[in-house]
Write a structure and sequence with these properties.
heterodimer, A: about 120 residues, mainly beta, 7-stranded mixed β-sheet, 4-stranded antiparallel β-sheet, about 55% strand, B: about 110 residues, 11 strands, globular
């Protein structure tokens, strides 16, 4: 089984709808991240969490919110989706466990979100 | 100016060619340098990890860091069609600072 899973893998929604993207990990890492990827803009950090009680905004947090329900679960919400939030969304984890370096990030397979 | 600059490509080479992928950066505090490979419809996966200046080799892949020029490279020898992917450079200051990614270079290796 994959270490970092994301659901759904694909989602088409309409402007104004609330959307939640979910991420789960079995790597035992304490840090989790949400990125969006757009052509020509690369990966941009939306939110990150260093543990269950620690949530931080990234460079493009406006229009998004997150919830860290447990060490292994980190969800991203779009309260009122708009077309320019159409993108590929990735969850990632990192943590100094199992020989991994703390800044090495492990990515999920991504969620392709389209907002009409 | 972006903190990390990477030529988006696409780069198309014949099988067996030597490929050179490059990034430049402006933040002199970066100490840890990474290359990620991203296949189509997949998440990025770590390919190489280096600290400070110098070279690191892993099979057909060599990562090179020149901190004085703020320039990093990834070389792929004897390129294979399976190397066709987007390659992203990434770097951090260490000490649990965030990782900054390049925009990625799309590589196609033609059989």
């Amino acid at each position: 089984d994959a270490d970092v899973t994301q659901t759904p893998r694909n989602r088409i929604t309409k402007t104004g709808k609330r959307i939640m993207l979910e991420c789960s990990q079995t790597k035992g890492h304490d840090r989790m991240y949400w990125y969006r990827q757009d052509p020509g803009l690369g990966l941009r950090l939306i939110y990150y969490s260093f543990d269950v009680k620690d949530i931080n905004k990234g460079e493009i947090s406006d229009g998004y919110s997150v919830s860290r329900q447990a060490q292994a679960k980190f969800s991203l919400s779009l309260e009122s989706a708009i077309p320019n939030q159409t993108a590929l969304y990735f969850c990632a984890t990192s943590g100094a466990s199992g020989g991994a370096r703390a800044d090495t990030q492990y990515f999920g397979p991504g969620t392709r979100l389209t907002v009409l | 100016q972006k903190e990390v600059e990477q030529d988006p490509g696409p780069l198309s080479v014949p099988e067996g060619a030597i490929v050179s992928l490059n990034c430049t950066y402006s933040n002199s505090a970066f100490q840890y340098f990474m290359w990620y490979r991203q296949y189509s419809r997949k998440g990025p996966e770590l390919l190489m990890y280096t600290y400070s200046s110098g070279n690191k080799e892993d099979g057909r892949f060599t990562a090179q860091v020149d901190k004085s020029s703020k320039y990093i490279s990834l070389f792929i020898r004897d390129s294979q069609p399976s190397d066709s992917a987007t390659y992203l450079c990434a770097m951090s200051e260490g000490g649990y600072q965030k990782v900054t990614f390049g925009t990625g270079t799309k590589l196609q290796v033609i059989p």
